[in-house]
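so ive been stuck on this for like two days lol. basically i have the seq below and the ligand is zinc ion, smiles is in there too. i just want the complex predicted, nothing fancy, no docking runs or whatever. if the output looks off dont worry ill sanity check it later, just need somthing to start from for the group meeting slides
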Amino acid sequence: MGQAKREMMEAEDRGWYEPEGHVCSDCVEDEFLKEVIRQHASQRQCDYCGRQTRAHSAAPVAVLMHPIGSAVFYYFNDPTQAGVPYDQGWLSTPTGTQDVLMTLPLACHDQLFEQIAQAFVHTEWVPAAGGHWSSSHLNEELSALWDSFVNIIKYEIRFFFQHASAAKSANPWEHDPRHILLTIDRLVKRLKLPSRLPEKTSLFRARIRSEEADWAIGAEQMGAPPSELARAGRMNPVGISYLYLAFEHETALAEVLSGPPCAAAIARFETQRELRILDLTHLPAEPSIFDEARRPERESLLFLERFVEEISQPVRKDAREHIDYVPSQVVCEYLALVFRVSRNRSLDGIVYPSAVRPGGRNLVLFPTERGFTRLFDQVEFQTAWEREFADWADLSASVGAI
Ligand SMILES: [Zn+2]
């Protein structure tokens, strides 16, 4: 077999030809691809931007083809190979290679982009997870698992959902609701999300103060409400009180105030020891779409981002919150009572983004002792003060965007 014939067969197997030319790391945007270029640099001049360096800085374009090709085939495939049904046309309309590369997206020097697009054996593509047009990626499967959990908990079985398989459901595609709790448990540990909150960290809590309010602004009134008064919250079911705090007093105010004229009492608490928290406001950055080895991590993060967005959605207080909060309440109770940071250590609370103040961070603390009077010995009341807001200018100057 001749050299050319062998190269062609190899390209057919791989899905792409290996283009000529050398490229420097300035000519691609993705950090992972930049690193691939640095590791394989074997020439002092870039054939695309013309940059010259003393040390080797440009790598053969061929070394970029594996990570780019692997990303393309992770998301797309040729319609024939993807098993798309054909009936006077493809059931799923194919797109060209350039569109596929832009969807990823591959951002690089124009001439390089063109050359890479030309290097693929196929010219038509359809979205295809794992090569098949009707399959799903891990993050889509996890999202479906979450949707199914939300549906069951809200509308089918509330308390004995671990026996959901015994109940007759009209939806045969539903998943066992326990799976999402175990999946979240596993992902949170694998991504090492539990973190530490140092002792003496300031935290804030605000309460609306109506004109007729006659309660004293102090430790007792500014703590968690007693169980019999505990209303349903994003993370706690009605009657089971959790302590809601914020990292900024502006966020604490924004969470409770609706519009001027109004008044609020604000209290500052301090952590009494180092706390173990699950910080959902600092998820790790997604690995590059071209980093094949870290693809499972990327998929897990894509799901967790959606999960965090969902549980921090603003919910209208129109009595619907009793049902809309149920899924996050179940997850929260699981994290409070079942989840273990280490063998004998459970979580003190969860940090989640404020739905009303962009960039604001909330912390919900779980009781250290449950009962008619709950104990939140993770924090201690420090001081409290009152603020009045006459108009919007006054209010927005104090809480930022709400
Ligand atoms: Zn260059």
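The longest strand covers residues 379-389. The chain has three domains: 3-127, 138-190, 194-399.
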